[in-house]
Structure formats: C-alpha cells, structure tokens
Amino acid sequence: MKAVVLARGLGTRMMAADHGAALSADQAAVADTGIKSLVPVFEGRPFLDYILSALADAGCTEICLVIGPEHDLIRDRYTRVVPPRRFRIAFAVQEKPRGTGDALLAAAAFAGGEEFLMTNSDNYYPVPVLRALVNMGRPGTVFFTPEGLAAHSNIEPARILAFALGKVGADGCLDALVEKPDAAALAAVGPERRVSMNCWRFPPSIFEACRRLTPSARGELELTDAINMTIASGVRFKVETSGDGVLDLSRRGDIPAVRARLGAVALSL
C-alpha cells in the first residue's frame, strides 16, 4: 500500500517563541527552522521517524513525503542518514505553500492511479487506525470522537472544537466534511460528533478535484474542498470511528508531551 505524508508546511506556529516550553538545545534549534517533523522528540529521533515507522507497521511499503524545495534536511535524512529498509521512500516537491490541496497534487505521479493513504506530518496516528485504512479495501477515513481525543491526545478540548467535522450518511459513508464548524454546524451534527484528523484512503480521482480547486477565503487551495468535490462526483468514503487519540506536534509547547508519550513506542524504519 502506498502512503503520502504532507510535510511541506511553513511551521510558523512552531517557530513562535514559547518561554514556558522546556526544550533541549537540539529541539529549540530545529524548532527555529520551522521543520516541525524533524524536531527530535526522544533519544534524538525526530517526530517524522515515528510517523513513518507507524505507516510501515500498518502495511505501507511505499511512502512519499511532500516537501518544499528548501527541505533538503528531510531528503538527506531518508536518503543518506537513515535510509529505510522496511519501505521505499519517495519525495514530491510542492514549489510554493499554496495549501493542502495543492500539496497533495504534487504526489499525483507517485500515486500512479492507485488508491493510497494520506496523513499529516505533524500528527502521530495509532497503528490500528492506519491499519484500518490499509485493510478498508476502498476509499475511506477514520474519524475520532472528541472525548477520545481529549482523553488520549495532547490536544486541548478548545482546539478540538475547531477541527473539521464529518456528516455521515445512513450508509456509513461521508456526506460532507465541514471545516472550521460554527455553532450552528456543531448543533446540527448533534451529540455524536466525529472529528477529522486528516487521515484518509483516497481514490486517484482526488487529484482531479485538486486540479479544479480555486483559492478559499484564506487564499489557499484546500484539501477539504477537494474531498467535498470528490463526494459530489459520486465517491462514497467509508467512515470508521476511533476512540483513540492522535499526538499533535504543531507548537513548541507540544514537544514535551509528545516526547513523554512516544518514549515507549517501538520504532523501526
């Protein structure tokens, strides 16, 4: 199974000062670059190592990192410093940070007309969640309960309220993805809210939707819009729900909590 990891972000939140975060000199130095996926979290191993190891544990044998043209440190790590043995590594370059939809489009050649997994590079997903996507056998996603995220993640409940919500139909498939839901959208979904943490099994038709994107109100080409366009074209994304947590590494203040939780995780590239 192929997987795409979006690792192109500018990392502006990671670069922001946080005098309350207890970081090592190495952690602070990498945080200053904004390349959050390379922040060392345990015994010198960067966060991205754990993401790649989890994808390999789930059954992914080919993994593409979407990076920027300036991200030689990422390319160098996985081609020279620690070339993986459990999977083949590839790179796709998003020339400018034009949004997540544009970032995914950079990996179209890698996907090669096959279904593939997609994840973020600032989130660590439980292996059973990734394995569920590998074994799903069709386009789909795993959503998370707000209660599970609050209990098993390092993400504050107030932040969870702003995450995208899924509207799930009677057939157990996704009717729509609602980005930045307002109070009315939250009320419409009701008590059984299902939160997207951006882990998907996409069909190759997602790239056609990405090509048709126009800038959102934020001026970006949004993956959420491409997903909703793909649904409108007739694709039914199967939805599974997890009560597990997802580790988030977006800010300097996230680093100590992530380090504490990943210390016991077995890692192998």
Helix vs. strand class: alpha/beta
Query: Roughly what is the average pLDDT, rounded to an integer?
Result: 90
What is the correct CATH architecture? Alpha-Beta Complex
Query: Largest sheet, if any?
Result: 7 strands, mixed
- Using the CA coordinates, give the radius of gyration: 18 Å
Apparent shape? globular
Distance between the termini: 16 Å
- Helix and strand string, N-terminal first? EHHEEHEHEHHEEHEHHEEHEHHEEH
Count of beta strands:
13
How many domains is the backbone divided into?
1
According to CATH, the fold-level topology is Spore Coat Polysaccharide Biosynthesis Protein SpsA, Chain A
Note the beta-strand portion: 15-25%
User: Widest sheet: strand order?
Assistant: 5-4-1-6-11-8-12
Total number of helices: 13
Regions with little confidence, pLDDT below 50 for 5+ residues? none
Q: Helical content, roughly?
A: 25-40%
Tell me what you see in this structure:
With 269 residues, this protein is an alpha/beta fold. It has a single domain, classed as Spore Coat Polysaccharide Biosynthesis Protein SpsA, Chain A (Alpha-Beta Complex). The protein is 35% helix and 22% strand. It has 13 helices and 13 strands. It has helices spanning 12-15, 25-33, 47-58, 72-81, 100-105, 108-111, 127-134, 146-152, 157-160, 183-189, 206-211, 223-232, 255-262, and strands at residues 2-6, 40-42, 45-46, 62-67, 88-93, 116-120, 123-124, 140-144, 165-168, 174-178, 195-202, 238-242, 247-248. It has a seven-stranded mixed sheet. A two-stranded antiparallel sheet has the order 2-3. A two-stranded antiparallel sheet has the order 7-13. The longest helix is centred in the first third of the chain and has 12 residues, at 47-58.
